[in-house]
Amino acid sequence: MGMWIVHIPAIEHQVGITHAVLGWLLLFLGGGAFVGMQVCGPLADRFGSRAIVLAGGALCSAMVVLPGLANSPWTLAAALLALGFGNGCLDVSMNTQAVQVERGYGRPVMSAFHAVFSVGGVIASLIGARTISWDWSPSATLAAVAVTGVLITFALVPGMLPPERSSPATNPSRTGAPTKRRTPSQVWALGILALLLMLCEGVANDWSVLHLKDVLDAPAATAALAYGGFATAMTVGRFLTDRAVGRFGRVFIVRYGAGLAALGLAAAALSPWVPLALLGWTLFGIGLSGCIPQFFTAAGNVDPESSGANVSRVAGLGYIGMLAGPAIIGPLTHLVPLNLAFFLPVAFCAAAAFSAGILRPAHRKSTAEEPARAEA
């Protein structure tokens, strides 16, 4: 996905579209991802997440070449829809597999997986910069990425975990058809919290640099540090979160992480000084860094036989939140200054902090991955 992102300007020029048209076409990427998540979540429960990771990883890798071949807005739309679908399939299946790995591993590891995803983006930016400097075409680079991704997928998937147990949900042969299970209300609550916090993450992705440049009149190079500080804090924070979860529990991480994010963004919004604003965006990233992985883990453990479907609900709602950030903040800026519009995501972070208790298991159990302290 990072390799697609670094080639967006070249593909935009190749297809001959404006930024506005590209913005609309990116909705096909998000829509495809959402559909892929909803389709592959139940399939992961029926056939095991390992099988769907294999299919999703191969599909996502293969489809990344299509945007590089697009020569019109319609072909680019179709390419992004296919790439989004593959990405959605991989996203929900690998998170479902990660829930299973964490359950067997005996201590929290989900946040580290998400941190490595961020590292992948950094690697993509470095490789992309090099291939662009060599004047490789987007189609050639993305074709090489596609082949590499497929080979890596087939090499790694055999080492993943098989389904944990055979049941009517995962073995339809017992009843002749898969059992349709009702989504627990706790999963929907986790999904709403994921939507709120991933919307906040989307706000940082799209508006942090503009905030420093337009509100505080910072030079372009300095303004770029706002997103750099946020992204770095997100990555480092996720590497550190698992140890904190093991000691304090998931409720603690979300409650105080979302609270810290609210304070950081409020400080950035109100600051008249660039250094304080940069510190605020960095604290915003640290606070958010460990929250979303906890929602995925909690959803996957509500009902182990429906982990894939439940993770797909949370991931799907979270993805909607990520896409909704620009759509919500943009119109608000016609009513209030940009920095004051940030108090909507501040309120969302505060709401998540107060609602963190929803991560407690519905049936209280003492497990290795959820310390008793998390229930307090």
From TrEMBL:
Residues 163-182 are annotated as: Disordered. Residues 1-364 form the Major facilitator superfamily (MFS) profile domain. Residues 167-176 have a biased composition (Polar residues). Keywords: Membrane, Transmembrane, Transmembrane helix. It is a multi-pass membrane protein. The keyword Transport does not apply. The chain crosses the membrane at residues 20-39, 51-70, 76-96, 108-128, 140-161, 187-204, 224-241, 253-274, 280-302, 314-334, 340-359. InterPro entries: MFS (IPR011701), MFS_dom (IPR020846), MFS_trans_sf (IPR036259), MFS_Transporter (IPR051788). Coiled coil: none annotated. The keyword Membrane applies. It is found in: Cell membrane. This is Inner membrane protein YbjJ.
